[in-house]
């Protein structure tokens, strides 16, 4: 351990904690293994993956124990490393199962990264050809990554008595203040996961009831569980080629409701649903703008569908609302093939990809609160341009937002747009090199969908398509964008600074 002493970061403690996360992650493979037994499918790939993951994690944990203290610096490195290595071990069942579509490590890692980051982009061209156990593992990775593996670690690892707050703050996406729901951060993390599990079980029960009552004959217990996992995670993976278009209207409307719930800040959602403090959500500035964005996106798409005679009646309303909510919250589910819509409708969906859900939710992208604060920063600058002597504070929920937080919002948005542009440019350049036909709009959509953890994009990477035509280099770029989007860029940018590593 002493060899790390010259650094300003306790790398030993970081590696030890990442090892502990992997050790516990091994238990996750038991669910698909049990399903494999139930459907008489090979279960050894999952047991082998469990043994390797837990064994490797134990070796790393025992071999790199540090001072067992996680501070702000260590928190950045823990989060970045965890989200790099967890998908690598999560990809093992794809490789061990000898699934032809994911036989190459680069493809298996892409699919696992898409799962754990709750992105929903896929390289599969025959989703329904997967074994049921492998398909469920794919869905389960999204559920694990939705609320966050780090939050789960904070909830279950007793050693995180110190540093849990830093990790929880790093893991809750968006500029959200980590409010303690209880006396300890560990208990707060536990309650967030309890709420997450409760909402998931509720969705499973509701979806299964639709199948039992005949409201949606396509929805059995297996399908209900699979769709609930990806819905509450705002992930977008489905067991069906046609995503949720394979299910009935009642299921699609119900998914919209659960997506809207999952897109709310979970800290405030807990206060509203468990402690009956509904005003915690109702009076929240971000929540009101969140609903306004969803309503505006739905209205725009509805007008475009009706004007283009692409749908009518309840179907038009359902497709407009579903796709607006699904894309804005970064779920990426599809109730129809929106690539057949007008260019204006596709452009509307591209814009929705940049909105995101609430901070502290399971959604990705920029987040509504950042847009809200950016609007108010711009308004302040315009007012001070006219009246230079006036001091105009930026407020959020009646509280003044500190300039450091505002600078963080501006920095994030600039980095996000810049990374999106470079990602799209890289895809276009590589597509020309690899002789893959990718239009400019399709490259923009793919970069936005992966960086924003949305999933499906446009063209061949659309909702009923696949990212498979991209070259290995482009696949690597898209994998990196998913990783950066899940980490919200800043932690990785911090790791690249010299001052971060200095004592």
Give a structural overview.
The chain has 503 residues and is an all-alpha fold. It has a domain of 99 residues. 63% of the residues lie in helices and 1% in strands. It has 23 helices and 2 strands. It has a two-stranded antiparallel sheet. Helix 10 packs antiparallel against helix 11, helix 15 packs antiparallel against helix 17 and helix 19 runs antiparallel to helix 21. The longest helix is centred in the last third of the chain and has 31 residues. The protein is globular, with a radius of gyration of 22 Å. The N terminus is likely disordered.
Q: Quick summary of this structure?
A:
This protein has helices spanning 11-25, 30-38, 44-63, 72-90, 92-96, 105-116, 132-147, 149-156, 164-171, 185-213, 221-232, 249-262, 266-273, 279-282, 285-307, 313-328, 343-352, 368-386, 403-433, 440-451, 472-487, 490-495, 498-501; strands at 395-396, 399-400.
Strands, helices and their partners?
Elements (H helix, E strand, L loop, with lengths): L10 H15 L4 H9 L5 H20 L8 H19 L1 H5 L8 H12 L15 H16 L1 H8 L7 H8 L13 H29 L7 H12 L16 H14 L3 H8 L5 H4 L2 H23 L5 H16 L14 H10 L15 H19 L8 E2 L2 E2 L2 H31 L6 H12 L20 H16 L2 H6 L2 H4 L2
Antiparallel strand pairs: 1-2
Attribute tags:
503 residues, mainly alpha, 23 helices
Give the neighbour order of strands across the main sheet.
1-2
Largest sheet: 2 strands, antiparallel
Our estimate of the beta-strand percent is: under 5%
Taking the alpha carbons of the first and last residues, their distance comes to: 15 Å
Radius of gyration: 22 Å
